[in-house]
Amino acid sequence: MIMDPGTLAYYERGGELTRLRQGRDRLEFWRTRDVLRRTLPPAPARVLDVGGGTGAHAEWLAAEGYDVELIDPVPLHVEAASELAGVRARLGDARDLAVQDGAADAVLLLGPLYHLPERADRLRALSEARRAVRPGGLVAAAVISRYAAVHDSVYLGVFTREEQRAAEYRALETGAIVSPREGGFRGYGHHPDDILAEFADAGLPEPRRYGLEGAFWLYGDVNDWLDDEGRRELLLDAARRLECEPSLLGVSGHLLAVTRV
User: How far apart, in whole angstroms, are the C-alpha atoms of residue 122 and residue 127?
Assistant: First the structure.
C-alpha cells in the first residue's frame, strides 16, 4: 500500500527524530511510556511497534528487556530506528502487516490511526493488529483528539490568522487536520467516542481510554515543569490521576486506547 505523499514528505524532513525528545512533546512521550509500563505484559514479551517512527518507544522497550520489532512506512524512520540497541526495524504498512497470526504478545499503533483519514483504513489497521497479536495479548492505539488542532493553534498564537482558524474549524467538523502552512502536518482527529466504535467494528474488545497530556500540554510554563525532575513527577502524577476521567478526555492532545484480545 502507498503512503500519502504529503505525509511522507512531512516525515522525511526529519522532525520525528527529535519531536518526542524535546519541548512539550516530552509530556506525550512520558505519559505514553507510563501507561504502557502499567499495561504491557512483562518482558521479554514480543512487541510489534507499528508506525513506531524513529524508535522513541522501541528504544526504552528494548532497554527494559522486550523483544521489539518496529515497522514504519518512512525509510528515514526505519534507518534511525535500526541504529538503536536491541531494536529490529523494517518498512511496512499498518494495514497489511507481514507477520503471522498471533505472532506478538502486544501490538502498538502509536501513529498509524491519525494518518489514515478513511475509516475503512483505520479499521483495517486495527484488524491487522488483532490478527497479529496472540489470544490474551494487548493492542494499544494512539489517536489525536478532534479538538487538539484548535487548542494547539491558540497555544502557539496562530489562531488569529483567518486561514488557520478555517482549517481548525474544518478539523472540528470533519476530523481532517490539514495545516495551511506549506508542508505542514496532515492527520485525523478522533472524538473520544469514535475510538470505541472503531475498536468494536474491528472486532476488538472495548478499550480503556487514557487522556495522555490532559490539559497540561496547554499550560504556558509546561516546559519549565518538564525540565525540573521534581516538578515533572508531580505533573505526571496529576495526569495519571485524571487520565480516564470521561469529561476530560477530549482536552488531551493525544489519547491511548488499550485492550486485550
Answer: 9
Average pLDDT on 37-44 reads 98
Show the DSSP H helices in the chain as ranges.
Answer: 5-12, 25-39, 56-63, 75-82, 119-132, 148-156, 162-174, 192-201, 222-227, 229-242
- 9: domain range? 5-145+191-260
**Is 88 contained in some domain?**
yes
Residue 129 lies in a domain: yes
Distance from C-alpha of 162 to C-alpha of 29, rounded to nearest angstrom:
32
CB atoms within 10 A of CB 168: 24
Domain harbouring 202, CATH code: 3.40.50.150
Q: pTM here?
A: 0.95
The continuous run of DSSP H or E covering 257 comes out as strand 254-260
What is the C-alpha to C-alpha distance for residues 196 and 43, in angstroms, rounded to an integer?
A: 28
